[in-house]
Amino acid sequence: MSESVDLSNPQQQCEPGPFGDRATVSINLLPFAMLALSAGLAFGVNGGSNGKLIAEAGLAAVAASWMVMILALRRSWEQRPWLGVALLAGLIALMAELVIVNPTFGFFTWTGYIWTFRLVQEERWRAAGIIATAAVTGTSQHGGLPNSTAGGWISWLAVVGINLLAVSVVSWFVRVREREADARQQAIDELTEANEKLEASLRENAGLHAQLVAQAREAGVLDERQRMAREIHDTLAQGLVGIITQLEAAAQAPRSDREWKRHTDAAVELARESLAEARRSVQALQPVPLKQAQLPDALGAVARTWSERSGVPATVTTTGQPRPVGPDIEVALLRTAQEALANVAKHARANRVGLTLSYMDDVVTLDVRDDGTGFAAPLASLRNGGFGLTAMRQRVEGLAGTLEVESEPGAGTTVAASVPAGIAT
C-alpha cells in the first residue's frame, strides 16, 4: 500500500523521515565518510608499523563510536547546552590524538567545525571550539606538532592563523545566515499569529454581521408593521368611523329628506377616499391631498372636507414663508391634522377649530386648537393613550420632532407638532 503525499501541503512536503531530511542525513554522514577516507589514506598510503596501525584503527573506531553517540544523544544535547560542549570537547580531543598519531587524519579533523556549529550555541564556547579545531587542523597541515625551534612554532602558528582567518570568515557568513533565519522565523511566527487573530476577527465579524442582519431584518419588519398600522389607522379606521357616523346620521333622517341624501353621499365619498388612501398606503405613496397640492393647500382641503362632514367650522392659517420640505414632514403633519380633527369630531363637541401652520427658520410647526369640552388626563396617560395619539407621536418623533397635547376641561384642546425643517428624506 503506497503512501500518498499532498503537494499542496508544505508541512507534509518538509516533514522529515525517521533519519531526518536529506540535508540532515548528508551532514550526519559526511564526518563518517571523511573519517573513513582519512583512515584509508593513513593505512594505505603512509603505512607504518603494526602497532601504529592498530593505534590508528582503534582511535578511528573510538571517534566513529563517539560520533554515533553524539547522534544518539541529539535530543539530550539540544536541551542541555553543557552536554553539547562536553561531547564536542571529547571529539576534538580524539581528533587531536589521531593527528598526533598520523597527520593524514587532517582530512577528518576539519569536520570539527561542523560539529562545533551543531553542538554549541553559546558564542564563547563556539569560539573556543573553532579555535581548538583550527589548532588541530593546522597541526595536521603542518605535518604534526612543531619542533622546539622558533621557526617551527612560527610556521605552526602561521598555519593555525590561516585556518582561523578562513573559518572566521565562514563563521561570519554562517552567523549572518542564522540571524536571517531567526528573523524569518520570527516574521513567520508573527505572521502566523496575525493570521490567527485575523481569522478569529473574521469569524467574530461574521457572527456580528449575521446578528446585525437579523436585527436589521427584525427592525425592518417592525418598522413596516408600524407604518402599516399608522396608515390603516389614519386612512381605513378614520374613514370607517366617518362612514359609520354618516350612516348613523342618515338612519335618523327621513329618506325623503335632503339631509338623508347628504349623509349617504358623504358616506360613499368617504368610502372612495378610504379605498384610495389604502391603496396608496400599501404602495407607500403620498396621501391623496399631498399628491394634488402642497402642504398648506392640502391642509386647507382636509379642513374643508372635515367641516362639510362634521358641520364644525375649521380654518387654516399659514405663517412665515411657505417652502418645500421633506415628503415625510408633510405626511407627518398632514396625518397629525387628520387625527386631531378626527378626535375633535369624536370627543370635543367643539363649535370651531383652528389650524395654524408655521414656517420658521429651522422648524415647521402645526397647531390644532378647538374650543370643545377638553379633558383633564395627566401627561403620562396622554403619552400612553390610544393608538391615534401614539401614531401621531411616532410619526413626529421619528423625524426628531416633538408632539405636545394641552387640554383643560371646558377650555378646549391644543395639539402642537414641531419638526426640524432640515429633516428631509
Structural account:
It contains 15 helices and 5 strands. The longest helix has 103 residues, at 150-252. The protein has helices at residues 10-13, 22-46, 50-72, 74-79, 81-101, 106-109, 112-119, 123-142, 150-252, 258-282, 288-292, 295-310, 327-348, 379-383, 387-397; strands at residues 314-319, 353-359, 363-370, 402-407, 413-420. It has a 5-stranded mixed β-sheet with strand order 1-2-3-5-4. Among the domains are: 10-145, no CATH class; 294-425, 2-Layer Sandwich (Heat Shock Protein 90), CATH 3.30.565.10. It is 70% helix and 8% strand.
Biggest sheet statistics? 5 strands, mixed
Number of strands: 5
Order of H and E elements: HHHHHHHHHHHHEHEEHHEE
Low-confidence stretches: 1-20, 378-385
Q: In whole angstroms, how far apart are the ends?
A: 72 Å
Gyration radius, in Å: 51 Å
Strand order of the largest sheet: 1-2-3-5-4
- The assigned structural class equals alpha+beta
Number of helices: 15
Average residue pLDDT: 78
Shape designation:
rod-shaped
- The percent range for helix content is over 70%
Residue fraction in strands: 5-15%
